[in-house]
């Protein structure tokens, strides 16, 4: 998911009603996925953010996973960590700054694959969007970078504390790139799933990815549920001749269902808008369900910046207008009405409230 766009019970007990041939699809009560935790209120992928999400009613918390130099999977939105940690202010790491080509894009900064886990642990998290989220930026410097195991431990502590099953929803970031530099992540994640007793279709876990080949590899190695992420433009980094639009046709969705259990579309692919108002829902949910796929759209955000004009609130002349919260409830309600099985949000409390 891009910088500003994106990103103890049985399964049946979490899911509600089931669709034939798929163990976790159309639900009476869609799940709420805390996108990078409660990343609208706390620096993303931190214990502060994940615990806040659980407190607000999230059913799942989402860590994006990237590897360290010594092969540990850590929770960061990208492997470039200049914007989400204090690494740029650390003179001992100044020489690590580099420029790399990742999925066809040139990126300059500091990268997790150039640091050991011990070094990563000396860094502190920062808010990624401080101009839009100054209240979250007030927590800069307070939290460490987490491993996948630590995120699972937070979910399990939340389960004990609340009496609700809190699942984890990891995303493998740039797996083809990491394989190309000798740090493949699929087998590492499968090993973690097995060690953490999450390697089953009934475990409270979904594994997501924007790439197809890694999901096919995972399908052969784990029983955990898999989700293909799709955007409104572009295509999988591992398949340069394929567009996401090709994958979400009625036939394309049937092909996706061979290697995935669910679809994670940009929410505007379910409920489009013309930048002014929300438009009627598309047939994507209906077609995905017909193929046996659950649908978990990403990522609903509350700030005016991310909403169509009719849902924005406040004075457009206010310098902080784009950072103010608009009327996001209609977005959640439209997605739920379209039949989605879950929704990603930076504000899981709002998602849960709108779900009723």
Order of helices and strands: HEHEEEEEHHHEEHHEHEHHEHEHEH
Question: What percent of residues are in strands?
Answer: 5-15%
Derived structural class: alpha/beta
Count of DSSP E strands?
A: 13
List the helices and strands and how they pair.
Blueprint lengths: L10 H5 L15 E4 L12 H9 L4 E2 L2 E4 L5 E3 L22 E5 L2 E5 L7 H4 L13 H4 L10 H15 L4 E2 L2 E2 L2 H6 L5 H10 L10 E4 L2 H8 L5 E6 L13 H4 L2 H7 L5 E4 L18 H7 L3 E2 L33 H9 L4 E4 L2 H8 L1
Helix pairs in contact: 2-5, 12-13
Describe this protein's structure.
The chain has 356 residues and is of the alpha/beta class. Helices cover 27% and strands 13% of the residues. The chain contains 13 helices and 13 strands. Strands 7-2-1-13 form a 4-stranded parallel beta sheet. It is globular and about 55 Å long.
């Amino acid at each position: 998911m891009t910088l500003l766009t994106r990103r103890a019970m049985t399964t049946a007990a979490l899911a509600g009603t089931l669709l034939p041939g798929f163990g976790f699809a159309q639900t009476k009560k869609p799940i709420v996925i805390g996108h990078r935790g409660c990343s609208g209120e706390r620096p993303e992928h931190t214990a502060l953010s994940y615990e806040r999400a659980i407190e607000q009613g999230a059913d799942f918390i989402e860590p994006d996973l990237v590897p360290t130099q010594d092969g540990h999977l850590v929770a960061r939105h990208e492997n470039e960590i200049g914007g989400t940690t204090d690494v740029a202010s650390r003179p001992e790491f100044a020489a690590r700054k580099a420029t790399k080509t990742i999925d066809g894009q040139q990126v300059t900064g500091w990268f997790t694959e150039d640091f050991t886990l011990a070094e990563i642990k000396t860094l502190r998290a920062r808010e990624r969007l401080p101009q839009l989220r100054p209240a979250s930026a007030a927590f800069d410097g307070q939290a460490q970078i987490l491993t996948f195991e630590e995120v699972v431990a937070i979910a399990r502590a939340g389960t004990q504390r609340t009496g609700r099953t809190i699942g984890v929803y990891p995303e493998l970031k740039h797996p083809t790139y990491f394989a190309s530099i000798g740090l493949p992540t699929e087998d590492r994640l499968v090993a973690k799933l097995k060690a953490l007793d999450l390697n089953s279709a009934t475990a409270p876990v979904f594994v997501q990815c924007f790439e197809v080949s890694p999901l096919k590899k995972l399908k052969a190695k784990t029983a955990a549920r898999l989700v293909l992420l799709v955007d409104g433009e572009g295509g999988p980094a591992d398949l340069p001749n394929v567009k996401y639009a090709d994958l979400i046709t009625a036939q394309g969705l049937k092909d996706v269902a061979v290697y995935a259990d669910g679809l994670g579309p940009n929410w505007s692919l379910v409920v489009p808008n013309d930048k002014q108002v929300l438009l009627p829902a598309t047939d994507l949910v209906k077609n995905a369900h017909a193929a046996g796929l659950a649908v978990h759209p990403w990522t609903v955000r509350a700030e005016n910046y991310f909403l169509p004009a009719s849902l924005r609130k406040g004075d457009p002349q206010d310098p902080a207008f784009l950072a103010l919260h608009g009327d996001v409830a209609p977005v959640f309600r439209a997605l739920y009405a379209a039949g989605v099985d879950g929704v990603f949000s930076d504000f899981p409390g709002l998602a849960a409230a709108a779900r009723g």
